[in-house]
Write a structure and sequence with these properties.
By secondary structure, this protein is mostly helical. The chain has a domain of about 70 residues. About 50% of the residues lie in helices and about 0% in strands. Helix 2 runs parallel beside helix 4. The relative contact order is 0.11. This is Negative elongation factor B. One of its GO terms (biological process) is negative regulation of transcription elongation by RNA polymerase II. GO terms for molecular function: translation elongation factor activity.
Length: about 110
Amino acid sequence: LLIPMAEEFSAEDFCTTLFDEFLFVGLTRDNVTRHMLKLLWYVHNKLPAGRLATLMKAIQPTTGHNETVHKLYETLQERIGTTIHEGPIPEQQEVDFDSPLKSVPTPGPAYMQ
């Protein structure tokens, strides 16, 4: 039910309510951790970077978690890493200082007439 609401995850108050006040309470249970990992799989790119880092640290599996949770966590880390690296790299545009338009006068503001 939460995945279609992906846009809401960019709002800090929504994240605070969902993660801090609801999901963090049950993180000691494997099923809550698994569900949170699966949720982050779909919405990680909508979360603020600071919130995502906090969540990844909070859900980092311990020796008490089963192997499935460890694998899900590693897979999510890889997905987040590839998403960050696949993002568009802004190219610097070269400024052409030899533009023929430099000699064209700039029109004055219309409100001063």
